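Hello,

Following up on my earlier ticket. Below are the three sequence lines again, exactly as submitted.
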Amino acid sequence: MTITRRLLGKLTLGLIGASALGGVAFAADMPAPFDKPGDVKIALVRYLSTGDFFQSYLAGVEAQAKALGVDLRVLDSRQDAALQADMVDQAIALGVQGIIIQHGLTESMKEAAQRAVDAGIKVVAFDVNVENDKIPQIEQSDRDLARLALEQAIKDNGESWKAGYVYVAGIAPLDRRDETWKEFKKKYPGINEAAMFGTMDNPIANSVANQARSVVSANPDITVMFAPYDEFAKGVKIAVDEAGLSSSVKIYSADISTSDIAAMREPGSAWAATAATNPAVVGQVSVRALAMLLAGEDPGKSVIVPPTLITQKDLIDNDIKSMEELGAKLPQFAHADVAMPAWMPNPNAK
Amino acid sequence: MSMEQSKTSVTVTNTAQTAPGMSAREIAIKYGFLVLLLGLILFFCISTNGFASPQSAVFILQSVSITGILALGVTATLVVGGFDLSIGSVATTAMMASSYVMVVMGGDALTATLVCILIGIVVGLINGFLIVYMRVPDLLATLGMMFLLVGLQRIPTEGRSIATGMSLPDGTVANGTFSPAFLALGRHRFDLILPNLLPVSVVVLIVLAILIWFFLEYTRFGRMMYAVGSNERAAALAGAPVNSYKISAYVISGVFASIGGILLAARLGRGDIASGNNLLLDSVAAALIGFAVLGAAKPNAFGTAIGALFVGVLLQGLTMMNAPYYTQDFVKGGVLVVALVFTFALSQRKR
Amino acid sequence: MVQEAVFRVDDLRKSFGPVQVLGGVDLELRAGAVTVLMGANGAGKSTLVRIVSGVYDRDAGRITLAGKDFAPSTPAEAIRAGVVTVHQNINDGVVADLDVATNLTLDRLNGKGAPLIFNPRRVRREAKAVADRMGLSIDLSASITDLSLADRQMVAIARAMAHEPKVLILDEPTSSLSSAEADRLFEVVERLRARGVAILYISHRMSDIRRLADTIVSLRDGRITGVFEGPELDYEGAVNAMLGKKVSAGEIVVQTATAPVLKAENLQLAANSRPFSLTLGDGEVVVITGLVGVGKTALAETLFGARQPAGGAMTLDGKAYAPKTTRQAIEKGVFLVAKDRGENGIVPGFNIYENISLPFLKRISNFGVTNRRGERNLARTQIASLGVVCRSERDEMNTLSGGNQQKVMVGRWLTQASRMLILDEPFQGVDIAARRDIAAKLRASANGRATLVFLTELDEAFEIADRILVMSEQTIVGEHRNAGINVDKLLAEIAGQHQMVG
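Thanks for your patience. The regenerated structure is below:
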């Protein structure tokens, strides 16, 4: 058995990134400017930051930046669109070589991104379309997420069932997941959407639970709940449990967190499967795509981080109880071979 | 001038004579909202399958139990002429605190509950102190507290939600679990008519509603709180310790909010970071709608409970009819406006 | 004194609804003279000032300024015409958050021709000119909040004077000033008089009046009841005309106290006021009278624990009595019917019986639970014994007339036996019938307690008192038994004559 770097990586998955020393050790083989990584400054300009997803994303960005040995600045606008645009200018003034724009509004970020490009700075954007050919888009494929979950639903329940659907219009990832839902309904006429509901009132799970209670009591014959956002799924699960319908309803969702894993693992849980992209991996891919740009390579117009389907059975069979264990036991979840040229250090390896 | 005077006195006598029967407007003001509520229930029963059932009634109570409890607390501050904007964030802070105690520190249900209630008391005391002794206007003091708590609840976990198995800022993994006793607060059901019908949160709501209603209407402390809210100076000159009453009101509000937070945590089974602003808005709406119930034109516990129920019935019915979420906000707003018109325009004329 | 009047008011009338406030007022102001207007509460002073300063419209009458018709419809118009008013509440005359310079030039920042751009240097220059003209020596960059009340008053007057008025109206300008501060104000007023401004000075303070008055005009019940001029002003006559001496002594049977209830030794209301002693006995009704602002309310609140004395000691039934809070006073049986019932007494959200039971809820309640039946019975007793006109004890307070509201306020404190019942201006805004009812009830129930009533109106005092004490300058200066009273001496004491002796 040859010990490859990949295998070594697998063995040490779950530990946080390479030490700075490790980064320096690799430096000799690296293309410019990463032969002197300490001189490379990059900035992460964030629109959204509160919540597990964004915490985890940031951890991924930090891990990959550390693996490369570059200097990372994090600028957080906390959902202030105008401030986020100003922060791009601030980053330009800081003299960074690369910028990751994380979320934001097309209207406010389009020109700021163009200014950065004009200043000779390499830019990648995650989950925001800045309408610029020079800026690669990092995407977690929401359509794939929805597709994986729905394919599992078809597999489990056949092609004909009565569904409840949780959806709030006007939120970009949910809108993209909704497109897939509509395609599936067209493709499988046996799917009957009995109710559509949803709210973003926080705590979201609590508000959705209240709504789902009404829905299941009005439509006790629903067998599948498609809740393509884990907060929605959590709320639906509470309602289904409270209504005593856990055995007759199955929930399919998108996204995952440690507490979601616990909820899915509960004995008799209605939550059958979820499709998820590891936000930490998305963070790593964002930095890698930027690094490729800086090294003069082309990561492609859009860099898609593929999602993973996680079923209740996977979790129980592998005894997975947390996100860390999920990464360790489902390697496809911990690492994506995207934007991964040979010289790129893997943050999951030592 | 004298003509007018005599006219007025004639009207007065007329009213006096018809007093036992009450005028149509007085009836409308007094019972209008209750009739509206009954009409609404009737409408949903007819137009929606499954609305008319004991389960449905319990769902409605359960869906309003947390906002209802918060609303009862804020009613106490409204009674003393104040306001508490921090209740939503007190509830979410209590939710985070109980999760933290159990999941991270490995505490039991009792510790978690006591810590939450302690938080409610402390926040209430600080609010009261700021308002009474530092003379910060109530809206501003509690607004400040709201922001403070929204930030504070995120500090121990660096903004992560709390769930078993989460990794902590120092890299370790939290292995504690929600104690079953605690989860029972959110999930256990008592038998009533049907087995496993009545959730704990509904029982808590009803008990707290009766308690605060009795306290405000039938004890001298409640009466003095109304006096403080209506004319602080007169209450002080009648020997009332005005400051203590005001601070007590904020403590009541804080404790009720933290109880709401405990139930929220027990239902969700994890500590979700949330500002609680929707909880705040819904509960304030319930309390304000309560002004209009029985033509009280003042904050009152019975009205608040009815107000919460009103919002619950509306949302339940609309959801069952597949109405999208924004129409629900719209309808909620509409009800509030109508209730405020009842309170301020119609019943003012009575005076 | 042959000088022609620059400002003249003829037969001014004003009513609010059925209530006539001004019933034909005639007034003349001469340039370079201070005319003092005296009047008790409710005499119509404020209404007169507000009409002249353009806040209210008049119903009838004529006002001329320098021979021309003067009918301002807004305060700004009155100021432009040359009639400037400095209102009683000092903080109405200044903007607290701005500095002195901006305050002095505030009026130039508004209206036509005001510059668009706020130029601090120009403001400072103009402010300095205004201040110099007035002899004002205040740091122009100071913030108003850092100034003493007197300095704020100076700024308000200086600001008014920046308009170069022909007529200046000062409404109780010394009511919140110390005597040293008042002296500075008087110098300014004298300087303005010398410059030929006609000044209407509204005050009750005899020391102010002695110092400044060229003419005294007494206003009572919306009519001028006396004009006093000449080198030797008749101060007592002015007070007499203002209070309306209608001695009706003899209508009541004067009682003598049986035993002392409250004793105060060397009581001092303020740090620099003269100490006084006081004894109030069981079964007697004692009236303390005096002009507005001589410390009557301060004394009432001190006895009730709402205010702490600066010195001295009190005993109640022989035991030391030093209430720190109103609650302690109530527990010891000392009750206060506060003045301004709307502000200090009535709880508007409560009905009659809830208002009556307010202070004694603890006594009526069982283990904290209120006893509504008990409350309603108490209320019904009071309604019957005071003759409150209402439908039932559940009526809202705002359905009652002023007199009936006051009966409820008095009834509130009669539901429980007291050792001392204090009433501060209980006849304010009360019609004569209700006043008689309340007075009769107080006298009839006087046995078993000491009753102390604070009154400004003398004829009200004569109607109710066994003894009358006179207050002036925060201390008691005279005592009279309400039988064959020496009214001249009483008036002299009220007018502050005692100071000449003391």
